[in-house]
Amino acid sequence: MAPFAGFTMPISYSSIKEEHACVRKGVGVFDVSHMGEFILKGDGALDLIQRVTSNDASTLTPGQAQYSCFPNKSGGIVDDLIVYHLEDGNYMLVVNASNISKDFNWVKAHNTDGVALVDISDNTSLLAVQGPKTNQALQSLTDVDLGSIPFYHVKKGRFAGVDNVLISATGYTGSGGFELYFNNKYAQIIWDKIFESGAEFNIKPCGLAARDTLRLEMGYCLYGNEIDDSTSPIEAGLAWITKTKKEVDFNSKSIFKAQKKTGVDRKLVALQLIDKGIARSGYDIVNDEGKSIGKITSGTQSPSTGKSIALGYVPTELSTVGAKVNIQIRNKVAAAKVVKLPFYKS
Question: What is the fold, at CATH topology level, of the domain defined by 265-346?
Answer without folding.
Answer: Elongation Factor Tu (Ef-tu); domain 3 (2.40.30)
